[in-house]
């Protein structure tokens, strides 16, 4: 058998199935598309679910892919075994009602034996115990002896996911030989390293109603999966997925970076494998637009990065290292996944920022842990509370193994049961928050009942009116034959000039008119399968299914939306010019009122940066640049330098929109000349997530209305100030100066009044100290502090306790001179003792303390107690 590399095996697989009539599709994004049941794509079939369920028509009935995947369910085993990793590539061939077992099994067998060259005598298939058809194919057509075909039960060889399509599967194992294991676990289906499952062919032939009842599917499908790294491990006769050629190159680079050797130390080996895997996972996730955060897929990314940083520290790496590892990942994988190189600036910047942030978090967590340890030692406690350990983990990102390691050095331990309970509670809460869903992970709607062959053609790029034929009509709950006056519903036509909400652009509004009825379109939705749904209400008469109608888009709304959309393109270009090439679109929304643009950046924009961005956009608007839109292949579009969106699903043909210096892939509607945008103004800029900022802005008539509202406010302010609008600034300056003078005079009067009130206050001698305990009139706490200082100047060796009722609440202040403190006076303890008397609490330093309270009727009682407390302190 010839040794082949990962990249070669990937090409061989896709070429083989392309020769056998399959359409080769690019790997989908790691971010699921219209599937709320998954945080991340975790299998080859996951992004193809709509084709299996019939919700969308596949581009071909035979498809093959190499899909990038992320799985973190067993992340604690990553690095510890030869098989586990969070990132992997899944090779797969799929049939949507085309071929089935008789073709699917030979496809797999012939690729492994004839293309790759695996020894047929070392391959062992398994089948579901009740799948006699698959068993017969292996025995009679593939000529595998019965004693080498293993029958396993439902747990091992039957694939199902609750309600929906399911079926038996046939797995192919490869015997790697005795050198990889000869123990009791090294058997077919065992946990040893000798027999490795290479390929799983799933025969989707039943429908599960969710109650254990199975019916035969009319359209039977094939879904297969073969881990590319695992195949390479077998072909290269390597010990693990970590030592196949591409992963080994990353691992050895990291080992050099750390100054360690692989296989020199068990713990170091685990850390090296973890770094190898996590460097790939994080680079691929960021390339698909996932940003580190505290929830969802962003939290998965953050956890992976922080786990890698932790193991980098264990290996003694100093400084920031994740970007360096990512460079190696990009270099070794860019041929199969060009998006890695396209997004390299972003990948490196995100990793650097997140690593720097975690370095600060680790230090904060360490300080907290040291404080907890000191408290435990003081109290003689041996077990750290699970809640504290979880707080270290959840709030500060502090790994539990690090917490345990440090505690063991001190002869202490963690309450792991309580920690695990807290973790479980968090997971259960997150799971409960996930939407209740159907097979696709989305709430079932009336739209799911529509014939998947129904599609709509959008004709509205160059027209706002068109004639069409009604294909489907629905109310909010069912498909209907007609809609009558007053009914809310959705109309789907064969063609439409209405733009459906997509790519951040709000859908059009307008009217649909038939000979007997009128339907007011309030919104337009992009539905599965290329259908465009006009959502609204019947305002007159009736429209019937199959009827010819005239569709008219609201021109004012469309034009306002187009201005905001076109301005967003100019905005993104300006942001990249001012802030740097790391800026990428992270979300957007534009309707008739305003535009909202989310982008990757790691700090707030300064006033000058905002000003410069606005200037660049408005310069492009004033330049009256024509907006050029062309349709071309995706490859040709990339050659033009057109920017693409993170994780966006593009077809073979794309629209390239060019205006001024901006060139982007975009399917939305735009102005035909930048001058028609009219003007641009940023009205807000703020952070919405870690590493993601949001700008909201106005254009056109909305900008005019914005300035008009500002002018009205200015005029109202001038009227209140009794001056002209041009004189507002000087008028306010004069008023502020007058207020400042009045404040100064007021403070002098308050100080004099407070000073006068001291005339009747006398100190009481307590064991050689002058003690003043009195109720005073004061406007605020600052005035009380001033009185305290005055009394300390008046009396040597003084302890001053003052009380005042301010705005219905009690304020207490205690102060002790340095001499009094030396004699034992403690202002903080005095306040602690007397504050509860007035229904409050407080404290402070030995020489100064204060407290608040609620019961003014107890002030005298509190002052009497204060003197008694001083007597116990000064002896």
Write the layout of secondary structure elements.
Elements: H1 6-19, E1 23-25, H2 49-53, E2 62-70, E3 87-96, H3 101-115, E4 123-128, H4 132-141, E5 150-152, H5 154-157, E6 158-159, E7 164-175, E8 195-208, E9 214-227, H6 228-235, H7 245-258, H8 266-287, H9 296-314, H10 322-333, H11 339-342, H12 344-379, E10 383-384, H13 386-396, H14 400-409, E11 413-414, H15 416-433, E12 457-458, E13 465-474, E14 479-480, E15 482-484, E16 488-493, E17 495-496, E18 510-513, E19 517-527, E20 531-544, E21 548-553, H16 555-579, E22 585-590, E23 595-600, H17 607-622, E24 628-633, H18 634-639, E25 653-659, E26 662-665, E27 680-689, E28 692-699, H19 700-721, H20 728-757, E29 764-766, E30 769-775, H21 781-794, E31 798-806, E32 809-816, H22 818-822, H23 827-834, E33 841-844, E34 848-853, H24 859-873
Parallel strand pairs: 1-2, 4-5, 10-11, 12-17, 30-31
Antiparallel strand pairs: 2-3, 3-9, 4-7, 6-7, 7-8, 8-9, 13-14, 13-16, 13-21, 15-20, 16-20, 18-19, 18-21, 19-20, 22-23, 23-28, 24-25, 25-26, 27-28, 29-30, 31-32, 32-34, 33-34
Helix pairs in contact: 3-4, 7-8, 7-10, 8-9, 8-10, 8-12, 9-12, 10-12, 13-15, 16-17, 20-21, 23-24
What is the global morphology?
globular
Strand content: 25-35%
Number of helices: 24
Kindly report the average pLDDT value: 89
The biggest beta sheet is recorded as: 9 strands, mixed
Quickly give the structural class: alpha+beta
Helix content: 25-40%
**CA distance, first residue to last residue:** 96 Å
Number of strands: 34
- CA radius of gyration: 36 Å
- The parts where pLDDT drops under 50 for at least 5 residues are 433-442
